Amino acid sequence: MPWSNQNGGGGGPWGRPNGNGGGPWGGGGGNTPPNLEDLLRRGQDRLRRMIPGGGGPGGSSGTGSPFGGGRGALIIGALAVAVWLATGFYKVEPYQVGIETIFGRYVGSTGEGLRYNFPYPIGGVVKPNVGQVNSIQVGYRTGPGQTRNRDVPDESLMLTGDENIVDLDFEVQWRVNPLKASDFVFNIQNPEGTIKAIAESAMREVIGRRNIQAILTNEQASIAQEVKEMVQKALDEYGAGVRIEVVQLVSVNPPPEVRPAFVDVNAAQQDADTAQNEAKTYASREVPQARGKASQIVQAAEAYKTKATADATGQAARFNEVYASYKVAPAISRERIFLETMEKVLGSVNKVIIDQNGAPGSSAPAAGVLPVLPLSEFGARGQAQTGAAR
């Protein structure tokens, strides 16, 4: 072997020129670096022991390959190829999606578990995190401990529809869409910057269509929802593979220079709302009562109308009956009508009966005059006296 370590075969891979020891630097044995020579010899011996036919201490010392010929080279090459192919195994975590490429071209997506693809430089794998919720801050920045430490006026100051300025900070939370992870990998280069630019543009458009009073009071939820829909639509058109989870308004205030005036306006608006609510409460209590009373009066009038109509109808029917009887027997009818009338008239007055046939000269107080004892009044007076005595 050319690198043989036998005593008569030379002193190393460079041989022993002129029969003297030495190395590639020439000269005597004292100038040869012993550490390098020992390292090469040890590597040579290991290769001989590992490769079949590679020779040993009693093997051939001719001019053949140290690897035992062409077969050893093939084995080395096969091992190298096997190791290279083994590097194609990869693991996908539950919160990841595997994006496989061959020569840079997308060939498919894989789920969690142990997977395989051709190793570099033929194949490649990108594993975006689809479980992590990312946050983008617009108008402000937070420091350690989630405390706001810096405002960004260039992002937060926006013009409203009534030509006022509002200082608005908001946050966009997003994540990679698991169903469109390949779009996220190949179609968008700077996700954070793209989403932030789209969100800020959408917020300015939405704020520009509303008055500042509505923005500061009761339309913040609708603003956040509208901005979320606009950002999601724009990202879908770009094929970004991003899903917007929520758009949250962190703070909505007028500029610091005019903030006290807006505070006074808001206080006045709240007082007006309070007065309106109290008026509505009073109206909701009084109006039903008034309607109840009006309905009661109407029903009473309807009842009186029905009663009066029924009485008039009855009297008319009775008169018709009396008239029919009168036509049959006029004298008897007149007598009956006279008696009924006198009964009604004399029934409620004090009466004195005069007997025109009384005997003259009798001892009566007045001839022919007969006093009538009012039994009803007598009974009423007796009851009153009894009650007073008690």
TrEMBL record:
A GO molecular function held by the record: peptidase activity
Subcellular location field: Membrane
Membrane topology according to the record: Single-pass membrane protein
Band domain boundaries: 87-266
Source superkingdom: Bacteria
One BP term from GO: proteolysis
Pfam families with a match to the protein in the record: Band_7, HflK_N
Region of interest (Disordered), residue spans: 1-38
Transmembrane in keyword set: yes
DNA-binding listed as a keyword: no
Record keywords: Hydrolase, Membrane, Protease, Transmembrane, Transmembrane helix
Quaternary structure and interacting proteins, as annotated: HflC and HflK may interact to form a multimeric complex.
Family per similarity comment: Belongs to the band 7/mec-2 family. HflK subfamily.
Function as written in the Swiss-Prot or TrEMBL entry: HflC and HflK could encode or regulate a protease.
Entry protein name: Protein HflK
Organism ancestry: Bacteria, Pseudomonadati, Pseudomonadota, Alphaproteobacteria, Hyphomicrobiales
